[in-house]
């Protein structure tokens, strides 16, 4: 056979799944490891049978339901990552809560950012041709030069959103954002390259504004 | 991710409540695309940060409490605990991240100190992986293979044992056999690479051996672990206490089925200067415990009950359901401060941590208390498998807690899989064991995901992340080890008060006539557990 490591790993899944199938056949409800193995094995076999990606993913959610597993196990099996071998080669399939859910989760929703308390509100327009995403702790003053807003008002400020949240500005759109001041020693290193030093040093703002002007940063306050 | 009000630990109805949150909030460190773990943002551009930071986990530590926090690591040791981030733009930073800091995202996870198993017979190399996959990072070991030794002796064997451990990312302290009335050989073995002493009845646990070993222990500031005389051939329980004469010693498997004075070894629990431990197959006391131990004692100790005179009698005297029932309750009461395995010599090294919490869950169900806040009970049982065995064997300056200065040995658990499947075991701040999937896949967690070696467990990694615990007389021994050496210390003046969360003393009376155990006159016991937590819901 000249088995490759991936093929031996596939056998581990099969063996665990076979144990689970036999136990299920005796009327037993499955444990976390048994349930995960069975779902993994049978989902991979759907690809072997020739089904395409979307169908394999969809059917992965129907293999076991909460009644097939011990109490609490549906919640424990929260995520299974698999690489079934499709006709176009191995493809990663991720099943999220495949016992508790009947179908893949909807990943298309894009909720509005949850704004934290903030005193500063700014109108920001994306004057460029591509979407621009800004994160919570980026010095808003020196965000992409194609964002048009009052740069002076954003000095020493960042978006009033939770870490990990992105505010995305589609091309041509304008929206309001809320900003909060940086804390700590208030020293900016890196970011957009307009500051590289203490925010509160005398003349720092004017020097940065001048640099922004030279580099062509859009500025609604200029 | 703000700290939740309380978190369930697996399926055991044990709940922990964060006492403090210094990880969540508006300056939380979020790794990944578009998070805050970036140069100049959550990460300081200039150096001055820690080598490695474990951010945002819920730390459970008997000496720190229950805190959602971050841990800074430098030189393999914990150097700071608190809020992580960039002081250039954030207030109140305790753990400074810089652009060279390695980051481990522990948000949503539970972190415990690496487990310490202070009763291990290292009978086969498979024990190392079983220990690590059970959340153990430090072992106090005897033996090196299937050889009748009951210690790791003498110098020639110790040498090979240390060389063999180069492949195993565990901190190790070896006990040497001290079942002798002559000190010279014991001191010779100790100086050859030992860190403590062991007396075992199979090779003699009489008065002369005990006194001789205590003298050696005192001279070298090491601990003496004793498996007492189960035959009562030369001493019974009260006699052993008299011979020990108020000198500190560690009494192994204090319930007695693991070995020792029958039927009343347990009467030595609760004493000021006797540190006591249990071995794990009787904890929590379960419906199958008695039957299992009849089989186990005979198998391990080479008995032939029914065929050889006396074997059935000593076996029956040793296996007592009623003292097993008292043992679990005495754990809950904090009278027995340590739980260990007695691996392959009547215990399961893979289950030391798991059984501590199975017992905590069973005692909550039977004895009550806690409700929606089990911090005290959880930390008490955690102490039995972390800080207390470390203190008992003189290792506590280095391991057993996550306080500053200690080796950054920790176990990162998914709360819903706690304490069954550790997600990641860090040794000296490096990934040594944990969950990972198919090597050729596009993601790290593609099935089959298994709990196995991580990078620090491969190549010459283990020696870089593991300590060799040694007696002072062995610190300069010529040993084939690349490990950092750490001297065991502060073993001889220990009392019950040094046992974190488990320092209760009292008079334990074991009455074989009525088959009852009392603590300060009150009966102690529990019903046999019919179904344990942290088991069937998870395992294959």
How does this model look, in words?
The complex is a heterodimer of chains A (222) and B (540). Helices cover 27% and strands 20% of the residues of chain A. Chain A is α+β, with helices and mostly antiparallel strands and 222 residues long. In chain A, the strands form 5 sheets. In chain A, strands 7-5-10-8 form a 4-stranded antiparallel β-sheet, with no helix packed on it. Chain A has a two-stranded antiparallel sheet with strand order 1-4. Chain A is elongated. Chain B is an alpha/beta fold. Chain B is built from 12 helices and 27 strands. Chain B has helices at 126-133, 155-164, 183-191, 207-220, 237-244, 289-300, 311-318, 321-332, 352-367, 375-383, 387-392, 461-465; strands spanning 7-9, 14-16, 20-21, 52-61, 65-74, 77-82, 84-85, 95-96, 102-105, 110-113, 115-121, 136-142, 171-177, 196-200, 223-227, 249-251, 274-279, 338-340, 410-413, 422-427, 430-436, 450-453, 467-470, 484-487, 508-511, 516-519, 522-523. The chains are: A alpha+beta (222), B alpha/beta (540). Chains A and B meet through helix 1, helix 2, helix 4, strand 1 and strand 11 of A and loops of B.
